[in-house]
Amino acid sequence: MNTLSRRELMKRFGAAGLSMGLFGASKEAWSKTAPHIVIVGGGIGGVSAAKYLRILDKNVKITIIEPNLEYVFCPGSNEVLNDFVSIEDLTVNYENIKSRYAVNIVTDLATDIDYAGKRVKTKANGFISYDKLIVAPGPDYKFGDIEGYSKQLAEGDFPHAWKAGPQTMKLREQIHNMPKGGVVAISSPPMPYRCPPAPYERASFVAEWLSHHNPTAKVLILDSKNSFTFRKHYIDYWTKKRGFGTKEAMIEWVPAEKGGRVTQLDAANKTLVTADGERIQADVINIIPAHTAAKFTHDTGLSQGNEWVPIDPMDYRSMVDDDVYVVGDATESSPMVKTGYLASNHSKAVAQSIVNSFAGKPPVQPLYTNNCVALAGEDYGMTITDTFRVQNGKIVKQYGHQSTELDNDALHHIRASLAMNWQRAFRRDIFE
Amino acid sequence: MKKTLLVSLISVSALFGMNSANASGALIPADKFAQDPQIPGKMLGDNCSACHGTLGRFYDESMPPLAGIPRDVFIKLMQDFKNEVRPSIVMNHVAKVFTDKEIERMADYFAAQADRPWKEENVLEGAQ
Question: ipTM, 2 decimals?
Answer without folding.
Answer: 0.91
